[in-house]
Design goal:
Elements (H helix, E strand, L loop, with lengths): L18 E2 L1 H10 L2 E3 L4 E4 L19 E3 H6 L4 E2 L6
Parallel strand pairs: 1-5
Antiparallel strand pairs: 2-3, 2-4
This protein binds zinc ion.
The site of zinc ion (ZN) has 9 residues, from loops.
Length: 84
């Protein structure tokens, strides 16, 4: 019996991350929306794409980063569905 894979060792971290559409990401870049790592969503306006440590409009913590930076840090993944 092979139970090795069920002991949690092979669970992929990315499965836990929030998924957004690529279209939503592009919109966030264009509109300078900031991603809050605590809220797991775009919550804040006027955040440069490469910013870090901005204050969240929603939870009031300094956990907001720019859309590009959030993608680079792997804070979210693309859902793979591009809707237009
Ligand atoms: Zn927040």
């Amino acid at each position: 019996m092979n139970t090795e894979a069920k002991n949690g060792k092979k669970v992929r971290r990315e499965d836990c991350r929030p998924k957004i559409s690529e279209r939503r990401y592009r919109e966030a870049c264009r509109e300078y929306e900031g991603w809050c790592t605590a809220c797991g969503d775009f919550t804040t306006c006027e955040v440069e794409p490469d910013a870090v440590g901005y204050r969240c409009d929603c939870c009031d913590e300094n956990t907001v980063m720019g859309a590009e930076e959030a993608l680079l840090c792997g804070e979210f993944i693309f859902s793979g569905m591009i809707e237009d």
